[in-house]
Amino acid sequence: MLKLITVNIETNKHYARIIPFITKEQPDVLCLQEIPESFLEGLHNLGYYTTYAPRVPVALGENQDSLGIVFASKVPHQSKCVYYYGDEARARENFGTEAEDMSFAYIIADVATEHGNYTIATTHLADTKDGREDDFQIMLMDNLLKQLAVEAPHCICGDFNMPRGYNNLYEKVITSYTDTVPAHYASSLDKNIHRLGNVTIDEPIFEKYLVDYIFSQAPYQVSDVQLHFDVSDHAAISSYLTKTA
Q1: Across-strand partners of 37?
Q2: Is 125 helix (H, G, I), strand (E, B) or coil?
């Protein structure tokens, strides 16, 4: 059994919540999105081995940094990063603010445990104006699923920016994966922290905006999936992974 947590940490805004949460939960594997590269040192100090994929360069305060995704594990892992739009050089040099200016990747890693090898991936898909798919997001998802189809069976987690019940890409994903987030969780955005928490928006309404997921494939089983609020502007998702064969 392996404990997995995924969460979009919204750059450097919530360190005072994130670090105590990680320290308390002690996941075997931690997948973070919108993480500044400079935060990797903090993960190393917590005892994690990391693989990082930048998405876009940013200025945080007076410092230039990059935001991206990270795969972190308590034991060493073997990993690779696959860009399905753009590349790492672009992600470090192009300061464009539109989604089309960014690079998009997934990290997939093998983690060896006493119960066998676990293959886990993480990604962060582009958002859209109303939560429904647009042409750019469709292209990204098509590229992502095409790349993932050649990988060994795995679980993939992260911020997919496709609200369940509103975005048609969700139906495409669940033809290859099982959505492990229980149906009673209607939203993964934290209304008390997220920038839209006090804003009235058109549907998909805030209370039905589930965008963060853990998707699984056989032979993986995902259990005890819980959303934890008051961590970031997105809820953290914790779970336990086992293999049936």
Answers
A1: none
A2: coil
- Taking the domains of the chain in order of start, what are their residue ranges? 2-243
**pLDDT per residue as tens digits for the range 79-132:** 999 999 999 999 999 888 889 999 999 999 999 988 789 999 999 999 998 889
What's the CA gap between 231 and 222, in Å, rounded? 22
CATH number of 2-243: 3.60.10.10
Fill in the DSSP letter of residue 145: H
pLDDT tens-digit map of 216-232:
999 999 999 999 999 99
CA nearest neighbour of 227 among 138, 164, 148 = 164
Give dist(CA 193, CA 11) in Å, integer: 13
pTM over 0.85: yes
DSSP H helical segments within the chain, as ranges?
15-25, 40-45, 88-93, 135-148, 169-173
Distance CA 105, CA 85 (A): 7
The tally of CA atoms less than 13 A away on the side-chain side of residue 130 is 9
